[in-house]
């Protein structure tokens, strides 16, 4: 690499954001990470991720102040701020002159969008617009952003393909992600910004989110609590291991695509859906504990199945997921036991 380029990663204290920063720093890039460290889930886990990136907890608690660390021989800078802050974000763009932007920050969670819809508009719509505007005014040529498999709703057509109709979201979270895709398309058309939307499919792995199935199930089994199994277990998910996800995200950030269009959308998943009960079985086998199961009806806003057609991402970026659920579950449970000091 001739010179170290600077990449902005929003949502850096999050699951995918943390792993992405690790990968970019190891590859020699300079990274500026933004996060507001909200309390949607345990903030201690978010601070622990930042600590892995060399950012001390006491430094990360201050809003709008830049904290600097050096890991893997590359510089990491962190700013705690709200993405919708229209005064501070443009200043960050002006100071660092980003080559690329990866927007992973968002109010996450399908079910939580039923309880606190305003948070999704603030972060996922207003915050996303703020990032687009900053890219527009500060000559950022490429922006990669997180969309979601949730936008496919309860489609019976599988596997899900990027050309499928996604005009019927069944949660506000999904609606905000669809909105992001439309907004990105408009900015690509109007201002020549290359935008790349990644529709993530059920990401799991070490340092994962506590509100996701992998974490919830492992935590319940280890602590002898029943697992909540929705739709009586008649669900399937395209569980995708974090290393496969990061390989795809990094490729879209730093490589040129075989597709020359400015606005691109890709599924990013494992393309091998697993029945929920089989996923639970893999956890049981790894922990050598039989789970207690509480069979429950379908949750509002949830979907029956997800299955990613990743042929477009494979064609344009040579994306090839290769981590099996068996290996992925083992890696997560090993991390969980280490992090929570469980023998």
In short:
The chain is of the alpha/beta class and about 350 residues long.
Structural class, please? alpha/beta
In total, how many beta strands?
Answer: 14
Number of helix segments? 11
Strand order of the largest sheet: 3-4-2-1-5-6-7-12
Indicate the radius of gyration in whole angstroms.
Answer: 19 Å
What order do the helices and strands follow? EHEHHEEHEHEHEEHEEEHEEHEHH
Distance between the amino and carboxyl termini: 43 Å
Largest sheet: 8 strands, mixed
- Work out the helicity level: 25-40%
Unreliable residue runs: none
Average pLDDT, rounded to a whole number, is 94
Would you mind describing this structure in some detail?
- The protein is an alpha/beta fold and 343 residues long.
- 39% of the residues lie in helices and 19% in strands.
- It contains eleven helices and 14 strands.
- The protein has helices spanning 15-26, 43-52, 57-60, 88-96, 117-137, 172-191, 213-222, 242-254, 276-287, 311-317, 325-339; strands spanning 6-10, 30-35, 66-71, 74-80, 100-103, 142-148, 194-200, 203-204, 227-230, 236-237, 240-241, 263-268, 274-275, 293-296.
- The strands form four sheets. Strands 3-4-2-1-5-6-7-12 form an eight-stranded mixed β-sheet, sandwiched between helices. It has a two-stranded parallel sheet with strand order 8-11. A two-stranded parallel sheet has the order 9-14.
- The radius of gyration is 19 Å and the shape is globular.
- The mean pLDDT is 94.
